[in-house]
Amino acid sequence: MSCKVAYLFTLFCRLTLESQLTALRCAQPPENIPTSKSSWFSTPADNICGNTSWELNLQRSGFWRKPSVACSLGRRGAWSPGYFDCLTLPVCRAPPPIGRPRPWGSPEVPPLDSHGSLTDWRSLVPGLLGSRWFNSSSQNYSTLLLEDQAGVLYVGARGAIFALVTRDIGAAGSSRTINWEASAGQKLQCLNKGRDNQTECFNHIRFLQRFNETHLYVCGTHAFRPMCTYIDVDHFTLSSGFEDGREKCPYDPTNGYTGLFVDGEMYTASQYDFRSSPDIRRNYPYPTVKTEEGPIRWLLEANFVGSALVRDSVNSSVGDDDKIYFFFTERSQEQSPFFSQTRVARVARVCKGDWGGLRTLQKKWTSFLKARLVCSIPDYEFHLNVLRSVFLVEAQPAQSSIFYGVFGLEWTNVKTSAICRYSVEDVQKTFDGPFMESQESKWIEYTGKVPEPRPGSCITDAFRARGINSSRDLPDEVLNFARRHPLMSRHVRPQEERPLLFKRNVGYTQIAVRRVTALDGRPYHVLFIGTDEGWLHRAVEVGGRVHIIEELQLFEKTQPVDRLVISPLQRSIYIGSPTGVLQLPLSTCSRYTSCFDCIFARDPFCAWNGSACADIDLHPHFLRSGLIQDILKGNRGCKNTKDGPTVFRVRSVMAGDDVLLQCELRSNLAAPRWTFNGRELQGYGLDSGFRVGTDGLLLIGARAEQSGHYACFAVENGVHVLAANYTVRVRTETVQPGESAPPPFPATERPLPSPPAPLEPVPLPQTFRNMETVYISLVAILGGLCLVLSVVLLYMSFSARTARRGKRGQQGPGRNERKRSSHMELKTISSRCNGERAERDERMAGATTVDGLLQIVPGEGQASPSKDSLPPAPPLPAPPPLPSSEYANGLSATLPSVLRKMNGNSYVLLRQADSDTTSPLYHSFTEELNRILEKRKHTQLVTSQPDESSV
Questions:
Q1: Given Cys at both, which of 161, 211, 557, 613 links 178, Cβ 3.0 to 4.6 Å?
Q2: Distance of alpha carbon 451 from alpha carbon 477, whole angstroms
Q3: CB neighbours of residue 914 within 10 Å
Q4: Under CATH, which architecture does the 649-759 domain have?
Q5: Which CATH number fits domain 289-398+426-505: 2.130.10.10, 1.20.1540.10, 2.10.109.10, 2.60.40.10?
Q6: Strands (E), 603-683
């Protein structure tokens, strides 16, 4: 009880101290702030804190918090000079993450974002503009099918399918729902298979595609018994018949899976069957075409992430066939001293017209080929070998199409991501190159003769000219070679020979790409990249590099981005996640409030029209002549040298005090540049008397010669933009109440506004230094009280424990004495049994007289482990009559039964206690032993060796 009281009192003291320290550092937030719900507001810095030391602390930390208000420096979005962006919160709710402050550093180094890379803008959940949200009681909204022309987004979730209106997915009453849950009996069978009834024993929708004009085709895991069926689009209902989906859908909802319909044919790739065997299949129409499993397994523990159709037959001069590409990560086959990765990224290809061989490779792919995808930093031979997502950007001709891949590492404790770009033409060249072959479990490049026609090729006009009109007409020699040589020797390398984007401490999960034509007439690829923590990075590819335009925090709770789908008609992107679907506009040009913001962002969707940043798609082509945009360099078009209203302040400080001159940079890519009386400040550091950080200029120990005019410029893309102006006056004497401040620095090109009126003097008892003394005194008093009470409680607890011990000590001595008086200790000792019988007799006789020790060869007893564990010896009963066989040595009949049950594999030492402390039971026992030993002297042993029961 006393410990609980001490803990509660200590907790009370801690909370009291924290509240006092909070009151010491900051004043109350502005009045009339709504606290019933979350809302944003801006407030002057003086309303938050009214002293220089706290303002300095605020600038360093970048965050201020009260029980119902959270504030941060206004650095994202629309920011007002001298104001803070604040979020009011209900008292019972913790504030959301405001973001990390800008780190102090060299002015030449742009600030870093929370992931350690350069980013122009960052927006948190409250700053999402134009967002729409849909969710329900279901989970895992990871399967999305967009039909843009019809204005419908179909969503497959756990146990349900939804049809949402693409214009506004969150509109009330606009969605339609089909509930498709696994039956209770099927869930029980799933549980009996050892599966998790919280995550796995449900019907997870994995496949959702358009089948024909009137129906959709859908497949689900159905509690580890995959099922497929049709959906009537007009009525949005399931058909009455269900099909077995074991050949079309994986059992496990977490296994990688991809699938698509191509001209009425269903292509899927996953780990099928209950044993999760990887395979690429054409499931419809029958017969099913699969990959080969022997003698060479074409796929090894493959995890599929995507698939794509490339229409090579369109405008083909050689009559080529369409191809389906599959992207996955599998266990490496080509192990070597220079290649130690256990998993590698692959791309595989099959031809749409492949129906398998006639005799060899029946119902197996004859055109299957695979090659390794390389995404590495060549300077360091650093390979990212796990493929997470792909996106194909189609073009005409089909060989000029490109695809983007998101790569990561197989080590779970290292979070690193990269984006590489590949061309379909390079992939085709790799498949036309040399093969690999397996020799003695090692894969090496094949140098022998390749049969004709080339194995793995699609049927073209050249094949038809030779009488080969389908894969079933291919010779067995070609098919046998294709069976044993599915792997290509050359690797598919990215364009530019390096990643477009490399990010540390970021786990990218999904990617979607949109081609946009800018004002200069050039096409640019805008990348939308989702992370495993619920962020969306919007970037533009410029000159083989990726410039991240902005980062958006999508969800209040951390969750991964599972799916990204772009709607060109609605100009929106739809994001699937474990808890719902989010709709965002492709760009929010209104976020940029000045010309420099609009140009520096390098957003292909946005341009400056002279007064605002506007969406170029909303302007007809004949009205775009007045728009300004610069994607390549991001520094041309703005004529003025100011980025919005410039901050002007006059600071009067005492000599020796530190003062911070704030310079808020609207862009995270901008670097601050400071001038003093028109000349750039040089030599940053403590010795120079000032320090430049990304939040401002810190004057350390202000001196009289530091009085003057300070200007802050934001430098980005080589452009200097005036961001703040200060006039600093260092005073060597204290300003008396009523005395006016000295005039500001006069040498300026424009008239400076008059300085703000000085604050009214406050009475001496309420000044900051006196209040600080009062609070420090209160803290010291409370600390002393806590210490005194803790000592008192410890003393009371110790006294109570001592009293209880004393009471037990008064009641226990008699019993302890009795235990010690009746104790006999048994110890195991070593000895030898060799010698004459007389020597044994003399030794045994001597044992009864020297120090009261007795050596016995016991029967089945065990030595006592400790002295205090033996209970008092009970009175010995009379020995029962024994058979005549036990009287061989004339001694067994007279031994107590206790001794005859002792362990016969060791000697036991019996030590008798002092005679004055022995109990009556002891005398009866010793007398019995003496009689036995006396009789032993006169007993003639039959054999020269005693048996196990002799003494």
A1: 161
A2: 7
A3: 9
A4: Sandwich (2.60)
A5: 2.130.10.10
A6: 606-608, 613-615, 642-654, 659-662, 671-676, 679-680
